[in-house]
Specification:
mainly beta; globular; tonb box; five-stranded mixed sheet; Maltoporin, Chain A; single chain; 49 strands; Immunoglobulin-like
Length: 997
C-alpha cells in the first residue's frame, strides 16, 4: 500500500511539474475539424496564422493546437478537396480559445470538445450516433456525471433497449446476457464469472468511463458473436492541458446504515483475498492427484495428518456484529499533454484511481415447489404447486470496488500515434447469509448460515496504433489501425463456510432445540478459483477512394486472431461425526461453530482413539475444467454513398473458431481414465448406442468440443432523405457460440437449498438472421427523436431448461439447443428542451419473443418412457415446450426530467425513472410453471450544481419508493400466485463533490 501511494504521488508531481514549467505568457487556439458529409474527423488539415508564420496540422481526432502570443489574429483552415475557411481570434495569456470548424457544403451546429475525442458530451455522442454506420445508442461521460449511477451496470440500463439483471448482466433487446458481448477500448475482455460468458458491468467504476456505446446492428469489422448487441466501453483519455480532479462522496442506505450488520474479515484494502483466507499450504502444496482424505489400505494420507488440518484454516466461522456503515467513495485523476519538441511531438498522460465501499442489508423470502397433478403431467391445467422448501434469509453484504487506469499516448509525428491503455479493477463482496426455513421433503426445519467472500479482478492492457499513410498528393491518406490486447480475469472465492442446524417439522414444542445437521453441507469449507486469459491482435486497414460520382468512399479490410484460456477449480472439505450427534451441548444451536468444530475435536485421545470428528475432502463429482478457444477472423467492408445522401456500409466477415472444454476430477488429473477426447456424433441414435456400449459417457467423456467456420454477410443503408433526418435499414447474419463454462457438464450449489446449474458438452452454436429499420430526426445538437423496429430469427438458440430431479430441495437446470426462436420489437427515443427550463428524455421498447424448446412428439415419448434412458431428450424436463426468452421483458422504459434552477443551467433537479415489465426469472421444470419476476419501476432524484468549471456537486436519492422486487409462480389449477422470491433494496441518500485543480 505504501509503495502504491509513493508511486502515485511521484506520477502526480511529475505531470504537474511538466504542466507548470510549460506554462508561459502565451495562449493557444485549439479545436476540432470535421467533415460535414460523414461527421468524421479530418486528418492532416493545415491551420495557419500568417502574421506569426506559425502553422499546425490536425491529428486523427481532427484536433489541432497552435500556441500564440497574446493578441488578435486571423486563422486560416486549409485542406485539399475542401474550401478554405478563416476565423478571427483573440488570444489571452494562459487561456486556450476553442474554435471548431466544419469542412464541406453543409454547416453543422458547433459541438464543444473538452477531451481528446469528440464523444464525451451528450451533443457529441448524439453527433457520433447520427453519422454512425450502424444502429447504435449510447451514454456520454457528461450524462454519467449527472446521473446517480456508480458503475457501468447502473449507467447502461438507461440506454434504449437495455435491461439489467442483478445489477450487472446486460440484456440487449430482450436477449439474455449470454447473447451480448463487451469490448473495452476495442479489446475483447474475459469474464470474471466462472458460470457466465458475459462481463459483469458492475466491475467498471463509473468514474473511469468516458462513454458507453451499444451497437445494435452488425458490421463486418466487429466480432461475429453479435446477437443482441455489442457493448463498447471506452475509458477516459488524456486532456489537452494539465487537469487534476478529486472527488469524494458518502451515502446512507436506510435499510443498513446505523443498523445491525454482520460481517467477517474478508479481503484487503483493494478487495483481494488475503493469505489467511487461502487454502492452507498443507493442502495446496500437495499434487492435485492426491485427494486430501484419511488413508486406508487402498491409499490416501495418514489420518492423523488429515485431522490436524483444521488448525491451519481461518478460525472465524461466526460473523461479528457491528453497526452498518455509511457508503464511501473516492476518485482522483490527473492528466496532461506534454509537448516533447517544437515540431509537434507530444505525450499524453492520464492516471485515474477510484475506490468505493457499499454496505447493504436485505431480507429475502423464497419458496420452491414440486408439481402435484392428479391426472397427468401432460395436462398442465390441473397442476397445483406443493411446497418443497421455504427460506427466510437475512443478507449482509459489504462491496468494495477499486479501479485504476493509466493511459499513455505518444504522437511522434503528425498522423503517427501509439497508445497504451491499462485498466485494473477489483470488485469484492463479503457476504453473510443467515436463513431459517423448512424442508418439506424430509420434514425438518433448519437454520443455515453461509459466509462468502468473492473477489473479481480484471486487468486489461491494450497497446495500439493509428497511422496515416500518405501516398502522392492525394487528399485523404490510407489509415492503419492496430491493437494488441492482453487481459486476465480472476475470480477467487476462498473459504466459503456453511453451518446447518435442524429440528423436526412440526417440532415437539416451541422450545425444541435445533441440532447440527451433521452432514453435507454442515461444517463445510468451499474454495474455488477461476482464471480467464485473452490474447488478441486486431488489424484494420482503410483505403479511401471516390465512387463514380466523385463522392468520398472507403474500403476497409483486416483481421483478428484471438486465443483464450480458461480454467476453473473448486475443492470442498467436510466434517464427519464419529459418534452420535447431540452428545455435546456444542452440537445445539446457538453454540458457535468455533466451539462445535474446534480443532481439538479432530485429534484422537486416549479415551477416543478415533477422535470425535473426521476431516476430509469431498471429491465425488468433477471439480475442475480446462478450456481453450482459438479464433481467426478476416473481413472486407466498403463504406460508399450510392448516391448523394444514400450511404451503403457492408461486406462479409469470415470466422474460424475452435473451442474445447475438458471437465474432470482433480484427483484424476493424470489418470488414464481422464480422457482427452470426446465421442460427439451428430446422430442421436448412434450416440446412444455408444453410451450403452460404454464407449462414451452421457456427458461425452467430459469433453465439449466445437469447430465452426462461418461467413457472415452484412448490409447497412443510411438515407438522409431530408435535412436532419436519417432512415436506416439493414440485414445481417451473426452467430453465438456456447460459453466455455456451458460446455462443462458439472454443477454446484452456492448455499443450502440453492438451485444447481449443469453444463452440456453437446451444445452447438446459434445462427441468427437480423433485420433492422430505424427513423432518426436530429432536431438540434441535443434534441432527438428516433423510432426503430427489428426482427431476429434464431436457429439452435441456447436455452437453460429443467432436468428431472426427485428427493431433493434443490432444482436442477442445464443448457440445451432449442430448435428455433424469434424476437421482434419496436424502440422509441425522444429528447427535448422545453421553455429553456426543462429537459425531457424518454426511451422505451416493446418486445415479443418465442423459443421452441422441444417438439411435442419427443417430449411425449420421453414422458411415456419410450425413449432410451441415455437419449438426451430423456434427460430434459421443461415444463413449457414454447415460451418467451428467459429474462426478456415485453415492455421497458426510461424517463428523465431535468428542471434548471438558473439561467446558466449550472443547477438542476432531475427525476430518473426506470421500469421493466414482467419477465421470466427462472425457467419452469419438472411440471412447475415458469417463475415470473413482476415488473417494477425505480425512481431516483438528483440535484446537480456546477460552480466555475471547477466544483461539481451532486446529491441523490435512489429508489425513493423502496420498490419491492417479487418473483412468483402461478398454480395452474387455482390461478393463485405463489411466492418464489421477494426482497427490497432500501432507499439510499448520497452526496458527492468533485473539484478540478
Amino acid at each position: 500500500m505504501k509503495n502504491f501511494i509513493r508511486a502515485l504521488a511521484l506520477i502526480i508531481v511529475s505531470i504537474w511539474l511538466v504542466g507548470s514549467l510549460s506554462a508561459q505568457a502565451t495562449g493557444s487556439v485549439r479545436g476540432t475539424i470535421i467533415d460535414a458529409e460523414n461527421g468524421e474527423a479530418v486528418f492532416g488539415a493545415t491551420v495557419v496564422v500568417r502574421s506569426e508564420k506559425k502553422f499546425a496540422k490536425t491529428d486523427f481526432d481532427g484536433k489541432y493546437d497552435l500556441v500564440l502570443p497574446a493578441g488578435s489574429y486571423e486563422v486560416e483552415y486549409q485542406m485539399y478537396g475542401y474550401g478554405p475557411q478563416k476565423r478571427s481570434v483573440t488570444i489571452t495569456p494562459g487561456k486556450p480559445v476553442s474554435l471548431n470548424v466544419t469542412f464541406g457544403v453543409q454547416t453543422l451546429e458547433t459541438v464543444e470538445v473538452k477531451d481528446r475525442a469528440a464523444n464525451n458530451t451528450e451533443a457529441s455522442m448524439l453527433a457520433l450516433q447520427r453519422k454512425s454506420a450502424t444502429v447504435s445508442d449510447g451514454i456520454s461521460q457528461e450524462a454519467i456525471k449527472k446521473s446517480p449511477d456508480s458503475s457501468a451496470g447502473d449507467v447502461v440500463r438507461r440506454v434504449t433497449g437495455i435491461t439489467l439483471i442483478g445489477g450487472k448482466y446486460v440484456f440487449v433487446r430482450g436477449l439474455g446476457e449470454r447473447y451480448s458481448n463487451t469490448l473495452l477500448n476495442d479489446s475483447i475482455i474475459p469474464s470474471t464469472e466462472p458460470d457466465k460468458r458475459v462481463v459483469p458491468l458492475d466491475i467498471f467504476p463509473a468514474g473511469l468511463i468516458k462513454n458507453i456505446r451499444v451497437i445494435k446492428t452488425f458490421s463486418p469489422e466487429d466480432i461475429g458473436e453479435f446477437s443482441g448487441g455489442l457493448v463498447k466501453i471506452e475509458t477516459k483519455e488524456y486532456p489537452d492541458q494539465f487537469e487534476m480532479s478529486l472527488g469524494i462522496g458518502v451515502a446512507r442506505n436506510m435499510n443498513t446504515t446505523g443498523r445491525k450488520f454482520l460481517t467477517f474479515d474478508g479481503g484487503d484494502f483493494f478487495g483481494r483475498a488475503t493469505t489467511e483466507q487461502k487454502l492452507p499450504s498443507i493442502i495446496s502444496g500437495l499434487p492435485n492427484e492426491i485427494p486430501y482424505e484419511p488413508g486406508s489400505r487402498f491409499g490416501g494420507l495418514p489420518p492423523a495428518l488429515v485431522n490436524i488440518t483444521p488448525i491451519f484454516f481461518n478460525g472465524q466461522l461466526t460473523p461479528s456484529e457491528e453497526k452498518g456503515s455509511y457508503d464511501k467513495n473516492f476518485n482522483f485523476s490527473v492528466g496532461n499533454t506534454i509537448k516533447t519538441t517544437e515540431s509537434g511531438q507530444r505525450l499524453g498522460v492520464l492516471l485515474g484511481v477510484t475506490r468505493s465501499e457499499e454496505f447493504r442489508f436485505r431480507e429475502e423470502n423464497s419458496k420452491r415447489y414440486s408439481p402435484i397433478n392428479p391426472i397427468s403431467t401432460l395436462v398442465k391445467d390441473t397442476t397445483i404447486l406443493g411446497p418443497v422448501q421455504q427460506q427466510n434469509a437475512s443478507l449482509y453484504n459489504k462491496e468494495v470496488n477499486f479501479g485504476s487506469n493509466l493511459n499513455l499516448s505518444y504522437e511522434f509525428t503528425k498522423g503517427q500515434q501509439i497508445s497504451l491503455k491499462n485498466l485494473y479493477t477489483v470488485s469484492s463482496d463479503t457476504n453473510v447469509r443467515q436463513a431459517s426455513g423448512v424442508n418439506y421433503i424430509d420434514n425438518f426445519q433448519f437454520l443455515a448460515n453461509t459466509n462468502t467472500f468473492t473477489s473479481r479482478q480484471l486487468m486489461n492492457n491494450t497497446l495500439g496504433g493509428d497511422h496515416a499513410l500518405q501516398f502522392g498528393s492525394m487528399a485523404r491518406p490510407h489509415k492503419l489501425e492496430w491493437n494488441l490486447g492482453y487481459s486476465v480475469a480472476n475470480r477467487d472465492e476462498p473459504n466459503v463456510t456453511q453451518d446447518v442446524w435442524r429440528r423436526s417439522d412440526p417440532p415437539g414444542s416451541v422450545a425444541t432445540p435445533y441440532l447440527r445437521l451433521g452432514n453435507n453441507p454442515d461444517g463445510s469449507r468451499f474454495f474455488s478459483e477461476s482464471k480467464d486469459t485473452v490474447r488478441q491482435l486486431n488489424v484494420k486497414y482503410e483505403i479511401p477512394f471516390e465512387q463514380w460520382a466523385g463522392l468520398k468512399s472507403s474500403f476497409k479490410f483486416g483481421g483478428l486472431t484471438m486465443e483464450r484460456e480458461k480454467d476453473f477449480r473448486f475443492r470442498e472439505f467436510g466434517i464427519k461425526y464419529n459418534s452420535g450427534i447431540g452428545t455435546s451441548l456444542a452440537d445445539y444451536w446457538p453454540a458457535p461453530s468455533e466451539l462445535t468444530y474446534n480443532p481439538t475435536q479432530f485429534i484422537a485421545t486416549g479415551s477416543n482413539a478415533n477422535a470425535a470428528k473426521t476431516f476430509s475432502e469431498r471429491a465425488t463429482e468433477p471439480n475442475a475444467y480446462d478450456a481453450i478457444q482459438k479464433l481467426n477472423a478476416s473481413f472486407g467492408q466498403v463504406d460508399m454513398p450510392l448516391m448523394p445522401k444514400l450511404r451503403f456500409i457492408g461486406g462479409v466477415r469470415y470466422e474460424d473458431s475452435y473451442q474445447k472444454v475438458k471437465t474432470f476430477k482433480l484427483r484424476d488429473s493424470s489418470n488414464i481414465t481422464n480422457l482427452d477426447y470426446g465421442c460427439k456424433v451428430e446422430n442421436e441414435d448412434v450416440r446412444v448406442a455408444l453410451v450403452n456400449s460404454n464407449i462414451c459417457t452421457q456427458n461425452n467423456n467430459g469433453i465439449g468440443e466445437i469447430r465452426t467456420q462461418d461467413k457472415l454477410p452484412s448490409a447497412n443503408f443510411v438515407w438522409e432523405f431530408q435535412k436532419d433526418m436519417n432512415l436506416r435499414w439493414s440485414y445481417t447474419q451473426t452467430i453465438t457460440r456456447p460459453d466455455l463454462r456451458e460446455l462443462s457438464p458439472f454443477g454446484f450449489t452456492p448455499f443450502f437449498g440453492a438451485d444447481r446449474v449443469f453444463g452440456n458438452a453437446n451444445l452447438r452454436r446459434t445462427y441468427i438472421h437480423n433485420y433492422d429499420i430505424r427513423w432518426e430526426y436530429y432536431l438540434t445538437a441535443l434534441d432527438y427523436i428516433g423510432v426503430g423496429a427489428f426482427y431476429k430469427q434464431m436457429s439452435d438458440p441456447i436455452e437453460m431448461i429443467g432436468r428431472p430431479v426427485a428427493g431433493s430441495i434443490s432444482a436442477q437446470f442445464t443448457y440445451t439447443n432449442a430448435s428455433q426462436a424469434y424476437i421482434r420489437g419496436i424502440e422509441f427515443d425522444y429528447r427535448k428542451d422545453f421553455l429553456d427550463k426543462f429537459r425531457f428524455e424518454t426511451n422505451f421498447f416493446f418486445i415479443k419473443s418465442r423459443v421452441d424448446v422441444l417438439s411435442w412428439n419427443t417430449y411425449a415419448l420421453g414422458k411415456l418412457g419410450l425413449l432410451d434412458a441415455n437419449n438426451k431428450a430423456f434427460s430434459y424436463d421443461p415444463t413449457n415446450l414454447s415460451r418467451a426468452l428467459q429474462g426478456q421483458s415485453e415492455f421497458v422504459y426510461n424517463l428523465k426530467l431535468d428542471y434548471f434552477l438558473t439561467s446558466k443551467k449550472n443547477q438542476s433537479i432531475g427525476a430518473y425513472y426506470n421500469y421493466f415489465g414482467n419477465r421470466i426469472y427462472a425457467v419452469g421444470a419438472n411440471g412447475t410453471p415458469d417463475a415470473i419476476e413482476r415488473g417494477v419501476g425505480l425512481t431516483d432524484i438528483v440535484y446537480t450544481y456546477k460552480h466555475d468549471d471547477r466544483l461539481d456537486f451532486k446529491a441523490a436519492a435512489k429508489n425513493i419508493t423502496d420498490t419491492r422486487f417479487k418473483v412468483y409462480q402461478v398454480s395452474e389449477l387455482t390461478g393463485k400466485e405463489e411466492l418464489f422470491l421477494s426482497y427490497r433494496l432500501g432507499v439510499t441518500f448520497s452526496v458527492a463533490a468533485t473539484y478540478k485543480f
